[in-house]
Amino acid sequence: MVSTIFLTATALPEVIWIGVIIKAVLILAVIAAIAGFGTYIERKILAFMQRRLGPQHVGPFGLLQLAADGIKLFTKEDIIPQHANKFIFSIAPVITAATAFIALAAVPVFPDFTIPFTDILVPSIASDINVGILFVLGMMAAGLYGPLLAGMSQGNKWGIIGSARTAIQFLSYEVVTGLSVLAPIMMVGSLSFVDFNDYQTDGLWLVVYQPIAFVLFLIAGFAETNRTPFDLLEHEAEIISGYVTEYSGMRWGLFFIGEYANMITIGVIASIVFLGGYNDFLFIPGWIMIIGKIAFSFFFMLWVRAAWPHVRPDQLMWLCWKVLMPLAVINVLITGLVIMI
Amino acid sequence: MSLEQFKNRNVGTQNYVKLDLDHSPTTGWCQFKQVVKRTFKPELFVGLGVTFREMVNALFRGKMHTTQYPFEKLPISPRYRAIHDMLRLLESGNYRCIGCGLCEKICISDCISMETKYDENQRKEVSEYTINFGRCIFCGYCAEVCPELAIVHGGRYENASEQRASFSLFEDMLTPIDQLNLQQEYAGFGAISPNADENVKSTPLAY
Q1: Domains contained in chain A, number
Q2: What is residue A115's predicted lDDT score, i.e. its pLDDT?
Q3: What residues of chain A have any CB closer than 8 angstroms to a CB in chain B?
Q4: What backbone torsions phi and psi does residue B72 show, to the nearest 5 degrees?
Q5: Residue-range definition of the domain harbouring residue A208
Q6: Domain topology for B83-182
Q7: Facing B66 at nearest CB: one of A49, A52, A304
Q8: What is the ipTM, given to two decimal places?
Q9: Of A187, A271, B106, B139, which residue is most buried, by most CB within 10 angstroms?
Q10: In chain B, which segments carry CATH 3.30.70.3270?
Q11: pTM score, two decimals?
């Protein structure tokens, strides 16, 4: 990751390396903090929707609950089961967390800005690779190796079922994700997130032209991040905790940092590709707009979790292959026809 | 309405209103129509609306359901049989117990023990009175048999302490003399809860 940063820095003359590093630190610090803080937000919002109070005793309004959880996770005994494949068992959580953060390297979050009183330009994106959207989606898909390997290495039946469901889920949603973003890619004619953002600078948001693709992408995004309608991997009522059954302490925590980082990534992609990116909106500056959009998509994921039941694995496959994929293909066809005409 | 109409059990002859349920689809076209109908019925969004409405209710309309237990407590029913209370006479402040020994006699788990003596006015006085809460099954016989309503069941249900004996001495259960004006008269077995009116809910039969 470091090497790509320096390569990009030399390729774009106006962006010096310190700007890229500031951006990378910004993304890491902000997203990692939000990913941890997301657990607090999730517990609070779910509690409110069920007319409970949620965490509120550690610190003001329970804000320090995150610290309490962190201390607990860090100091908890790290148990590796006797018959587990120890090496794979140990690195599986790292795969989930690392891929989630690597995916964020190619995601633009805030607009370009210059640090006051210096000439350091902080670019909107840590690394503007020209296949950004493919890279991000590919990295998030690679993140599913974490649950897959974790479930298979731990020598536990629930873990095996969890990783089998990971494979099912992966095979189901990935087609829909790819096909649903294909239509916007055709309209923009680029795979770079910056181009997606610039395309919507003057015109309408892409969700106006591509509502079906937006809905399909959201559905696939829920499956990609294991959020509730599709949380087959770890559904407690059926398979204990699925792939995290045998994990404890910080290894368990890494899975969830990865999951929350993925939720934010999906929110960023949905905002950039479909909802106008970090462009100014009327008088509202762009960085407030993008934060608002990411926050709303995060809230929407929690809202859905409070409201909807989850589906069975066969229902997920039925939905993805028999309903969503044909819809996505038809959408791509119609988009292509309209562009040709 | 006459009695015969109530006694008529012949299904089909009464004025039943049948529910307007959809029939399960038979042909492929019907199945397709059902799928389309269910797809565009915004029921998922109704679900989202319900949770959002409940969040607004909880946050802004004071319908939060949580009772923060150690700091606030729900009123307890007078039927509840927790740690006993020893009541005093309101006029004189003397304790009501006349030392008759009925509670000790009737106690089926044999946990009440008392010693009595005559005081200087030849009035019977309780010198020792303990209840062994390790044995007490909170059956309520002692409160029921007491002719003076001296021993009743109170609402003190938090029994965690370093020693069981912390609750069980006569002085611990007796109404403190400075709180005599706060002493609640025993409502009796079968009395309704103090917040019974709030708890009445209409039966959800309005289908």
Answers
A1: 1
A2: 67
A3: 45, 48-53, 303-304, 306-308
A4: -135, 145
A5: 2-340
A6: Alpha-Beta Plaits (3.30.70)
A7: A52
A8: 0.75
A9: A271
A10: 83-182
A11: 0.74
